[in-house]
Amino acid sequence: MTLSLLDPIALPPFSALTPQAVTLGMDEAIVRYEATVEMLISKRPATFETLWLPLERIEAAFDTFWGAVSHLNAMVNQPELRAAHAAGEARLVEVTTRVRQSPELYALLVALRDKPEFAKRSPEDRAAVEHVIRDFELSGVALAPAQRARYAAVSAELTALSTAFGDAVLDATDAWSEHVTDPGLLAGAPEAAMVGFAAAAKDKGLEGWLVTLQQPSVSAILTFVENRDLRARVYEAMGTRASDQGPHAGRFDNSARIARTLELRREIAALLGFDTPVAWSLATKMAVNAQEVLDFLRDFAGRAKPYAEREMAELSAFAARELGLDALEPWDLSFASNRLRAERYAFEEHELRAYFPVEQVITGWKALLEGLYGIRLHEREDVDLWSPHATYFDVVDEAGVVQSGLYVDLHARAGKRGGAWMAPARPRLADGSLVGKPAAYLTCNFAPKLDDKPSLLSHGDIKVLLHETGHCLHQLFTQVDRPVIAGISGVEWDAIELPSQLMEDFAWDFEVLRGMSRHVETGESLPRELFESLQAARYFQEGLGTLRQIEISLFDLLLHQGQIGDDPAAVLAQVRAEVAVFQPPAWHRFAHAFTHVFAGSYASGYYSYLWAEVLAADGFKAFAEAGLIDRATGDRFRAEVLARGASRPAADSFRAFRGRDADPQALLERKGMAA
Ligand SMILES: [Zn+2]
Fold first, then answer.
1. At 579, which CATH number?
2. Do residue 78 and residue 189 come from a single domain?
3. How many whole angstroms from 471 Cα to the centroid of ligand 1?
4. Does pTM surpass 0.90?
5. Which positions are catalytic?
6. Domain span at residue 85?
7. 442 C-alpha to center of ligand 1: Å?
8. What are the tens digits of pLDDT across the range 256-273?
9. Is CB count within 10 Å lower at the N or C end of the chain?
């Protein structure tokens, strides 16, 4: 293999990343990583230069290489590459776990930190070392040998449970479908949804239409289809997946996995010296303790509840009056809400899209970034990419100096993974006279250009673009030289959505939207009246949506705290009695498909979305108070928050930017609940 695969300063050579090169590259990466760790363990004296820097260098190189492989695997669906990626991923987890549990390496890092000279190093150097020592400790390295072995066994079982939980949800989702031969049963479904149902049927060799539990199918049925019984069947099948209830009761049941996961999370938290799994989770977050989060959620629930009650009363009255639905059932909520929205805010999604051809949106997006941060994006033609539809931009400052790089891939296409996300592409790295400039991947899945029809974006698409841009800026503006705490690396999980949600709010400014708009036929920019209709619908059912988020967040925390028992249904019932304005039926099984918490990394952390939204809402107000597109505010946000990464606590960065702690009132304003 060529050295450039493991070069953290060069841009990734995508065209050279064949499945064979990936496997060979992984072999070499592991050999070099392990050899480096071996060498570091035996080398004396162990100083910042001889111990820390080589470790940091090899880990950054490994991350950059593997980040490129993972990115490529998400961009092109190719079976050999997928196999090489899956095998590599397993090896990566294995080798990093082994290194993070090396008592020798841990002892050397602790000794480095405890030397008197260490106090004289820069705050960034100290923060990076402290950060990695904490990582080691949370991997159980500091435990006595018997406990360390127990930690490893519990960890392995938790990983297996998490995979099995996710698989059961996937299998339960795939196992249910309903074959429809009379299109009248699907009356109300939009054309695009009918195409989807027909394609699903054809996939199974069936005539007609197939309703499934895939998200687009469920959402189309519950939102649009007039047949109430069909809505009820889909709701029941969806709400009882992988549980002891519903049409497949007991077949994929996650009940025992939930119980065992909770038990093991308690054990591992106790091994590491925490009172509860919540305290273990909060050890790496901005929130100080469970009480602080619970108080925040309950206070917010109290404020949102009157809005939610009013929204529910309006919806019930509308459903009875206009739809003949006297008592609203849970499978009526989306359907009735959609009708109410259409009646109240008379504008059509496709009417709005005609104003936002992607080329113009990108022009307005660049102008926004230049206005806020003084950067310009220059497209480069000579960069190795994975698709002719991807773009690479040099991010150039006002002096014309290239500061960083941004990969952008905006449109859906066959073989590309769905969704929108940001990922680091390259760290900022100072290596003697060479300085590696940070780079990021920005991925979306907007409607592609078809034949000669331009790609038109929705307002939701524009919010997504700005959201992911916020994450990218965090990476691109970093001034931190230590990769483990630069960009988004190491930032507290409950603060990481600050830049993204803050940038999203610019999509609610008329001037910003005007700059992104040019009607695809008339060339006109967005008219004020249409913007006002959009604005009027912004807070539609915000109270209900907010209460639902709080309900899930409280459930996650209280279940892991364990004070009101281990039975998820009982804990959820208690939470709902406290905050919900609508009670799902007793047979509904939310926890059994709660993959964020049981097959993901959100355990005792689901509240993070709302927590970071307070920071984002108040941060955005700083811009609004200064006239919105304000360079001085942009520069301050960049210098105090984005550039700092995890080199200091997120709360300190926010305070340095805003001059005070975040004000929760700003979140009420962001949600239209300030009155
Ligand atoms: Zn995000």
1. 1.10.1370.10
2. no
3. 7
4. yes
5. 468
6. 3-142
7. 11
8. 999 999 999 999 999 999
9. C
